[in-house]
Specification:
Length: about 100
C-alpha cells in the first residue's frame, strides 16, 4: 500500500445552480384566471397536478401537513394507551 494514498483527500463536490426565470405578470394573470373560474363555478380539483409552484403553496402544504401529523399523533397515542391497558389487564389476571 502506498503511503501517499493514506493522506490523499477527495475534492469537495461542486454546487451547480441553474437559475429559473420567474414571471410575476404571468403568475398574477394565472391567479386572476383561477379566481374568476372559481367565482363562475368552473373550478377543478384543488389537489390537481400543477406544473408550477405558486406563491404561498409551501405555506398551504405546511399547514396541511401539520393537521395530518396531529391526527396521526393522536391515533398513535390512543393505540399505545390501549396496548398498555390490555397488558396491564393481562398481567393482573396472570398474577391472580
Amino acid at each position: 500500500m502506498n503511503m501517499a494514498s493514506l493522506f490523499k483527500l477527495s475534492k469537495p463536490r461542486q454546487f451547480n445552480l441553474k437559475p429559473r426565470y420567474w414571471d410575476p405578470v404571468k403568475e398574477e394573470r394565472n391567479a386572476r384566471t383561477r379566481r374568476i373560474d372559481a367565482e363562475l363555478g368552473m373550478e377543478g380539483e384543488e389537489d390537481a397536478y400543477r406544473p408550477y409552484i405558486g406563491r404561498g403553496d409551501f405555506r398551504k402544504g405546511l399547514s396541511r401537513g401539520k393537521r395530518d401529523v396531529k391526527r396521526n399523533h393522536l391515533s398513535s397515542t390512543i393505540r399505545i394507551m390501549a396496548i398498555v391497558l390490555l397488558l396491564t389487564i393481562l398481567i393482573y389476571f396472570i398474577l391472580q
